[in-house]
Recover the amino acids of this structure.
């Protein structure tokens, strides 16, 4: 006998709440920037991945408005069905140029771009994924039907053992990692990963969601910074973080892109992203490569060191992070939420990150710095955080 549907839903919600894991939407009445307006109050925003402060940049706004003017609002269907519009092609040419790959393909979201995994591997193959890799990579691996193995975070010894096991199996092996980890802020050792995967004849996908626009001499990402561009089979990322718009991408060889077109279900069976989003992303990529992009990036790193010096001075223990993401470890879910709420009362928005985004008992505050911040904003944050 089935129970009443709404009783069932409410019981589930109560169970989530009892674990300190209940989530709610917070309505804001402003765009994304260094400050957001919530319930009529201006809050200092340390929650966004808009690392270069491009989400409301005039150049991106103008590009989006022009695209609406010329191409309208909707895209009608998936790109293989109703024609593939010029803004998408212009974005992909800009992406391939920026990343220095043969070709690029854009998706409606970064989450959807992970669909590349099931385009490349399937039943009988193996996917080996870093323990802390983003949910979209894990979900894509599951969807592919390949055997899934998880290696300990950044542990090349553990990965090496799994690759030795994979050597004994039939089928191909694809390794999945982020370059800068979204919730911990630390980096993969791409040079070691490349060495290992080449020794074992495996392939490598690197998700640059939190690195694109920020690292490397041309700000292409960690793949550029590590000098391994020619050795990474699949470069993936989002256009919704430092690039300032929305969407995802895959960069790689012509054959890779052609295969995705034919096999990646999130590409084939989803309406194309709207012209405004795509044109803004292209403007974001151009901006990242410009002198202004370099200045914004330089400003960001200055703010990052101001914050990290300040936190250390106040006795906060910082993990070995090297970027704009600062995880302040709390542990208990309810304690992290309470701390986040206390900060909110002082006018600072810092989200509590909990299971299932991170492991149970590893709740944290996750601070992100943006080039849209000013030094005084960092000082206000430090004041609000107080001593550890
Ligand atoms: C945000 C994120 C994604 C998903 O990108 P969206 O464009 O937000 O869908 C993928 N991978 C990582 C590591 C991310 O942090």
């Amino acid at each position: 006998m089935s129970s009443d549907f709404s009783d069932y839903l409410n019981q589930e919600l109560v169970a989530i709440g009892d674990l300190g894991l209940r989530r709610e939407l917070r309505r804001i009445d402003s765009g994304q920037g260094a400050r957001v307006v919530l319930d009529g109050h201006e809050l200092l925003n340390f929650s966004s991945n808009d690392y270069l402060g491009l989400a409301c940049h005039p150049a991106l706004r103008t590009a989006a408005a022009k695209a609406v003017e010329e191409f309208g609002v909707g895209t009608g269907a998936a790109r293989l069905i109703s024609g593939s519009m010029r803004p998408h092609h212009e974005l992909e040419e800009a992406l391939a140029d920026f990343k220095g790959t043969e070709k690029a393909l854009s998706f409606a979201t970064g989450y959807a771009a992970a669909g590349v995994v099931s385009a490349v591997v399937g039943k009988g193959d193996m996917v080996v994924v870093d323990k802390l890799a983003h949910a979209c990579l894990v979900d894509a691996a599951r969807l592919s039907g390949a055997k899934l193995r998880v290696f300990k975070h950044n542990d090349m010894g553990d990965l090496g053992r799994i690759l030795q096991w994979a050597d004994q199996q039939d089928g191909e092996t694809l390794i999945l990692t982020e370059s800068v980890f979204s919730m911990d802020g630390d980096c993969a050792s791409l040079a070691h990963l490349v060495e290992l995967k080449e020794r074992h004849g495996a392939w490598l996908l690197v998700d640059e969601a939190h690195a694109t626009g920020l690292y490397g001499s041309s700000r292409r990402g960690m793949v550029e910074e590590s000098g391994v561009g020619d050795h990474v089979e699949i470069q993936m990322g989002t256009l919704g973080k430092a690039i300032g718009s929305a969407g995802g991408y895959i960069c790689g060889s012509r054959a890779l892109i052609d295969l995705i077109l034919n096999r990646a279900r999130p590409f084939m069976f989803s309406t194309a992203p709207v012209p405004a989003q795509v044109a803004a992303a292209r403007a974001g990529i151009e901006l990242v490569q410009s002198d202004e992009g370099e200045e914004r990036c330089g400003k960001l790193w200055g703010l990052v060191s101001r914050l990290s010096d300040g936190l250390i001075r106040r006795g906060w223990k910082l993990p070995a992070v090297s970027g704009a993401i600062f995880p302040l470890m709390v542990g208990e879910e309810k304690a992290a939420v309470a701390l986040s709420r206390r900060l909110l009362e002082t006018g600072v928005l810092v989200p509590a990150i909990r299971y299932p985004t991170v492991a149970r008992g590893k709740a944290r505050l996750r601070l992100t710095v943006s080039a849209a911040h000013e030094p005084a904003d960092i000082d206000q944050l430090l004041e609000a955080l107080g001593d550890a």
Residues 94 and 296 are 20 Å apart (CA to CA).
